[in-house]
Specification:
By secondary structure, the protein is an alpha/beta fold. The chain contains six helices and ten strands. The strands form two sheets. Strands 5-4-1-8-9-10 form a six-stranded parallel beta sheet, sandwiched between helices. Strands 3-2-6-7 form a four-stranded mixed beta sheet.
Length: about 250
Amino acid sequence: MAVTSMPLQHTPGQIVSILGGVVQDVCTITNRLPEDGETVVASAFSMAPGGKGSNSAVAVYRLTRPNPNNRQSPVNETNEANERPPNHNDEVHVRIVGAVGDDQFGPALKQNLQDCGVNVDAVRVVEGQQTAVANILIEADTGANRILQYPGINHSFKASDFTTVKSLGGGVAPDLVICQLELHREAIEQAVEMAGREGIDVLVNPSPAFYLMPEIYRNITHLILNETEAVMLSEIDPDDIENQTG
């Protein structure tokens, strides 16, 4: 479907928009992972806000603000307020486009993002739907983990949700789009294509990794992935690369 380009209209400052999952993490720590059919007693259990989208949004917000723990005491305490330079990083606005269910997790996860400084105007709470949940198994000694994610309402997003520039920022035109693959594949491909056509930088972390249409990559400015994701997306075995390079 053809989309007519239009001039970008920004609110003051730079806007970073994250298209990603808002997820409830359920973490279990164990000395070793169980074998097939085996039950192993875990050493710890915890629940925390998660999701690659949510984590990215909070990280971007914190990275664009000074760390109060790193502030040095001024030589002249009385002149501190007058001598402190203006904080231009406050002009970076972080927004997330996502969805949660109206269950026991959703509203609390949305509130947590807001408390962390992220704009949640585009996080919709959907009645009668379930929030995404990630079951995380962590080996205590090695830190190795296995993650099983239930997408829940995250997969409600469709390509038709991202057919305008402002839809990429939840109602405003963004300067940078960051996305993972927690939303439905067609929705992410459409969002990346739309951003590319409008000259908006796009950062993609392809996780959970799955196949993307090859033509999508030309619209990606920054691609961040690990070895496992690189193998899945390229369909190239690492041993084949080593054999070719010697």
